[in-house]
Amino acid sequence: MNTKFSAPKGVPDYVPPQSAQFVAVRDALLRAADLAGYGHIELPIFEDTGLFARGVGESTDVVSKEMYTFADRGGRSVTLRPEGTAGVMRSVIENGLDRGQLPVKLRYSGPFFRYERPQAGRYRQLQQVGVEAIGIDDPALDAEVIAVADAGFRSLGLSGFRLDITSLGDSTCRPEYREILQQFLLGLDLDEDTKERARINPLRVLDDKRPHVKEMTADAPLMLDHLSDGAKQHFDEVLSHLDRLGVPYTINPRLVRGLDYYTKTTFEFVHEGLGAQSGIGGGGRYDGLMEQLGGQSLSGIGFGIGVDRTVLALAAEAADPAVTGRCDVYGVPMGQPARERMVELLGTLRAAGVRTDMAYGNRGVKGAMKAADKSGAKYALMLGDRDLAEGTIGLKELATGEQRSVSIDDLLNEVSQGRG
Ligand code: HAM
């Protein structure tokens, strides 16, 4: 017996008809970025392992526990990209984009890989749409990036989400705060592992979900109370730009992100209907990343939105982004001469930009009409011997069942009007 294969654990397929929703979500999010002048960047799926270790941070879960790392046949250590920002930065430096007009504004989409425990909304291959705006440290740009994500969600009809935002400070106030927090944490009655975490990355302890740790850290000192004047002014300006843009937000001083490169503005979009995996997107500013990766000392800001989770969020809200069927017209020929003519007509319609399909094979009219309904087309094109003799074709509106006869010469016109 032949072996039947399954997709690897935690790796989703995107098949019709649901894949139409996936595409609609991805494209709407990309479109929101296009409206703000972001150019497309297509990144490698795997990179030198060192890029992520350096860029994302060795002490993060993403790098220390979740990377798909392997030696290629030449013995080099490579890693399937767990996120996009480090790769974008590598590419910007390598291609010298940072020597041109600033900021460099880029958007991307595609699969990312994290060896996480799969569950609803958490996959080992996940899909993101992301943007990065690199080279200018301007609070108005932070606000633009956030507004692009917000507009992307709203263009899909999503509304049950909130934007959490905070500032993680800059190089003048952060080291000092880190020490204050560390001292506070090491004074608590924490287990050895957690103490170790407090020594390596104290902020991460504030993200501990265990109730007794949460209770102990309830009064922990907060970065927002220790911002330098510069960082505070930057944050205040971001907020006032968001007000002007009409983007609602919640200041969440305990917001902790899973990646190490963030400074200043840091944010997360959270959807209430998703249970544990509620983060539908997140991002922030990263002052030191470019330099860390061997480039100039330029700041950047960006976000990554989880396309899979956005699709789930839409389902939770019972919102259907304007997903059109997979074709506009569906041909139902009756008899061999009609079939031959239909093939030709559909070819002409496709050349004019109309999406077509037809009942292939020897299906009866009933089966063909069922297929037409399923296709999501607006019209079924009914063509029989009599039509051929008269130069007409039946245009059946599938939603209403209404049918009228039109001249074949007018078909393109009629169908195009219906599409508008
Ligand atoms: P991130 O928060 O790690 O940020 O991921 C962004 C989004 O990807 C999350 O909010 C979530 O919606 C989705 N996501 C992450 N892991 C999974 C998973 N296992 N399954 C399904 N969805 C997932 C970044 O990746 C940063 N590169 C974002 C960024 C860009 N920051 C600055 N620029």
UniProtKB/TrEMBL annotation:
Residues 24-337 form the Aminoacyl-transfer RNA synthetases class-II family profile domain. Its EC number is 6.1.1.21. L-histidine binds at E83, G84, T85, R114, Q128, E132, R257, Y261, Y262. It catalyses: tRNA(His) + L-histidine + ATP = L-histidyl-tRNA(His) + AMP + diphosphate + H(+). The keyword Acyltransferase does not apply. It is an enzyme of class 6 (ligase). GO terms for biological process: histidyl-tRNA aminoacylation. This is Histidine--tRNA ligase. The lineage of its organism: Bacteria, Bacillati, Actinomycetota, Actinomycetes, Mycobacteriales. The gene is hisS.
